[in-house]
């Protein structure tokens, strides 16, 4: 029997306050308020079980299944930005569109081997992953590069400084640490306030889980 993940954000007051909205209303609000993450999160909480079940029944490895689940929601996130509900027709339902989109992602998936996957569903649920990646795209390139070196490749500050020095950057290991901390503050400031409230208020690490979200 398939064990569904426990997404605690479903019980967050911000998300629960949106349960009365229809799918179309949530999609419209998501499109009109790109600086708020609660509408996409509410859609995710409403339909994550369907998407998860469809994927895990078609993928042999649970690790690959979790990874594809996250990639599918990232694809949904970007597609929803431009989805025209009026052009979709009178018989349009979000659930049907979601199932069809998931089927397309399954069909086109080219998954890496299990040992190459560094994504953690528990550390970075898809809504958080989507908004972290969006925030990373808005960061200054050097900040983003240092964060990826440290969190994705697990490089030390000495190795980071050496790598940047090889690219004609004047930076010491101490500078690398300062730049990394500055990057975390910048990243969190670029996240929607409601996403921080839903996902980061009780984060014991007291920082955005970049290593899990940046794959």
Task: Describe this structure as you would to a colleague.
- The protein has 215 residues and is mainly alpha-helical.
- The chain has eleven helices and no strands.
- It has helices spanning 13-16, 23-32, 38-56, 62-82, 94-108, 126-138, 141-151, 157-166, 173-190, 193-199, 210-213.
- The chain starts with 12 loop residues before the first helix and ends with a helix.
- The model has no long low-confidence stretch (mean pLDDT 88).
How is the secondary structure organized here?
Layout: H1 13-16, H2 23-32, H3 38-56, H4 62-82, H5 94-108, H6 126-138, H7 141-151, H8 157-166, H9 173-190, H10 193-199, H11 210-213
Helix pairs in contact: 2-3, 3-4, 3-5, 4-5, 4-6, 7-9, 8-9
Short description:
This protein has 11 helices and no strands. The protein is mainly α and 215 residues long.
Radius of gyration: 19 Å
Structural class, judged by helices and strands? Answer: mainly alpha
Q: Give the total of beta strands.
A: 0
Distance between the termini: 29 Å
Mean pLDDT: 88
Summarize the amount of helix as a percent range.
Answer: 55-70%
Number of alpha- plus pi-helical segments: 11
Residues in β-strands, percent: under 5%
Question: What form results from the Cα inertia axes?
Answer: globular
What does the largest sheet look like? Answer: none
Low-confidence runs (pLDDT<50, min 5 residues)?
A: none
Series of secondary-structure elements, N-terminal to C-terminal: HHHHHHHHHHH
């Amino acid at each position: 029997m398939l064990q569904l993940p426990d997404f605690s954000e479903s019980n967050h007051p911000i998300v629960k306050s949106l349960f009365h909205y229809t799918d179309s209303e949530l999609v419209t609000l998501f499109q009109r308020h790109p600086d708020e993450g609660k509408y996409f999160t509410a859609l995710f909480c409403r339909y994550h079980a369907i998407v998860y079940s469809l994927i895990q029944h078609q993928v042999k490895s649970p690790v690959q299944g979790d990874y594809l689940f996250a990639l599918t929601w990232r694809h949904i996130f970007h597609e929803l930005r431009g989805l025209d509900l009026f052009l979709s027709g009178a018989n349009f339902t979000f659930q049907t569109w979601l199932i069809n989109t998931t089927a397309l992602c399954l069909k086109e998936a080219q998954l890496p081997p299990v040992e190459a996957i560094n994504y953690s569903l528990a550390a970075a649920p898809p809504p958080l992953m989507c908004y972290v990646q969006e925030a990373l795209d808005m960061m200054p390139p050097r900040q983003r590069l240092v964060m990826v070196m440290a969190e994705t490749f697990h490089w030390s500050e000495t190795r980071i400084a050496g790598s940047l020095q090889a690219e004609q950057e004047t930076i010491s290991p101490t500078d690398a640490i300062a730049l990394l901390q500055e990057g975390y503050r910048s990243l969190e400031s670029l996240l929607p306030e409601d996403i921080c409230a839903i996902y980061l208020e009780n984060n014991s690490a007291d920082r955005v889980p970049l290593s899990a979200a940046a794959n």
